[in-house]
Write a structure and sequence with these properties.
Peptide Methionine Sulfoxide Reductase, Chain A, six-stranded mixed β-sheet, two-stranded antiparallel sheet
């Protein structure tokens, strides 16, 4: 389970930051394949604790709604305590609704790979470990699959990361919203040590690396409903 004691969080954070410093939080190439789409679109991504993913993507221009939840397993096991057993097949994930006239699916993946998480970490992110914290793209269409696979191949060929990308790419079988107390957790708990050391830096990186895509006021889930 995540959210260890503060001392453990701090120690792990220091180690993980040192290991990942060259892999994330820098600008990376845009996708060469990025098919435009019309009408509201949805992307489902997993990359560590959903608190940080939700909080970061809520600051992205063109994103209209972000829900924290679970993907990869069955509906019956889509509950926080059960997912934490690492036996359900679920990954903590986010469902991102976005306007493709403002931001494309490919550009969301660009943020996902460069400032949202470290795609070279296998079954872990920062202080959290286990398959529920894996890096994964759950595609909802053949177009999304093509863009995702082409982008991973592009980044791999360009040797953008020093270590191999371990992000899984699989079809979306279902997305199940997490419990209410997880929604907008970062917004409601900005001073919690875990948030301060692991998640707020994602938002800072977005603002610094991609200022053109940064929205100062987050699109909170309560505002999107």
């Amino acid at each position: 389970m995540k959210k260890p004691l503060l001392a453990v969080v701090l120690a792990t954070f220091v180690l993980s930051c040192g290991a990942n410093a060259d892999a994330v939080n820098k600008a990376i190439p845009s996708p060469e394949l990025d098919t435009p789409a019309t009408g509201p679109q949805v992307a489902v991504l997993a990359g560590g604790c959903f608190w940080g993913l939700q909080g970061m993507f809520e600051h992205v221009e063109g994103v209209t709604k972000v829900v924290a939840g679970y993907s990869g397993g069955e509906k019956a096991t889509a509950h926080y305590e059960m997912v934490g057993t690492e036996t359900t097949g679920h990954a903590e994930s986010v469902e991102i609704t976005f306007d493709p006239k403002q931001i494309s699916y490919g550009q969301l993946l660009r943020l996902f790979f460069s400032v949202a998480h470290d795609p070279t970490e296998l079954d872990r992110q920062g202080p959290d470990s286990g398959p529920s914290y894996r890096s994964e793209i759950f595609f909802g269409s053949t177009a999304q699959e093509r863009i995702a696979r082409a982008y991973v191949a592009q980044l791999t060929k360009a040797k953008v990361f020093a270590s191999p990308i371990v992000t899984k790419i699989e079809p979306l079988k279902g997305f199940y919203a997490a419990e209410d107390y997880h929604q907008d957790y970062l917004i409601h708990n900005p001073h919690q040590p875990y948030i301060v050391y692991n998640d707020l830096p994602k938002i800072d990186a977005l603002k610094r690396v991609y200022p053109q895509l940064y929205r100062p006021t987050p699109m909170a889930l309560t505002a999107a409903r």
